Amino acid sequence: MKNVAFGQYYPADSPLHRMDPRAKVILAILYIVCTFLCKNAISFFGLVLSALLLVVLSHLPLRLILRSMRPILFIIVFTSVINVFMTKGENLLTPEHWWIKIYAEGLWNALFMVLRITVLILGTGIFLTYTTTPIALTDALEGLLSPLKKIKIPVHDFAMMMTIALRFIPTLTEETEKIMNAQRARGASFSTGSLINRAKALIPVLIPLFVSAFNRAFDLASAMECRCYHGDEGRTRLKVLRYRASDLVAVLLMVSFGVGVFFLNRVGIGPRLS
Question: In angstroms, how far is CA 231 from the centroid of its own chain?
């Protein structure tokens, strides 16, 4: 549970760390669109190369990247199994008389979906959390949504709530692990028995977890009030966000990458996503 990527910031001196956080939010959105645009083997190959390039540019340790992938291993395996056994096509790989039929299209679909999920989590983690502090992310969201202030939408409060939620995800997971270890020391078991028994065993974990979360919320509210926090009204910033030429170049490169993926999908070479 300590391997959750959201909310964790890794300090380093890299081109991605130095970028404007607003540009990184835009890049993250564009990158998500690019991952869903990929339809064939060539476009997915380009997507994997882009993910490797992001890892190099972020200067993140490889062990940190691999550790952050552990929580999604179940999703990856489940998605792979579903695609292998549920996708039908023209190239049957198993004998006709077998009741389990595996098609080549199913294997390719499983591979494509694994790559898409992995790159999606990796790209958004690098852009939004590993290289961006929670305060910078708050300022970025508020800056991008600032036009909504004209129609009386509390943009600052919305950005602050989102950032606080991201910030406390690792804290809550760590608190959950501590509570579960305390329950195990008292004889509780979370990995044995039927599914219903396992669900019942989580009840002694959820109650103190909710109590701890509410206590943290009250403490945070008291700390913000003691510091005279009252929202966006009259608020100034120590660091004023400014776009640089490199930020614009990065956004244009991401748009170009998306256009390239679109045209690669039209190239009829290699297997395609069904």
Answer: 28
What percent of the chain has pLDDT above 70?
94
Give the pLDDT of residue 270. 66
- What's residue 69's pLDDT? 81
From residue 201, give the alpha-carbon distance in Å to each of 28, 50, 181, 247.
38, 43, 13, 49
Domain locations in the chain as residue ranges = 1-154+240-274, 167-231
Half-sphere exposure of 239 (CA within 13 A, CB side): 12
Per-residue model confidence (pLDDT) at position 29: 94
Query: What number is the average pLDDT over the span 18-37?
Result: 93
- 147-196 pLDDT, tens digit each: 888 888 888 888 888 778 877 877 888 888 888 888 888 877 777 777 77
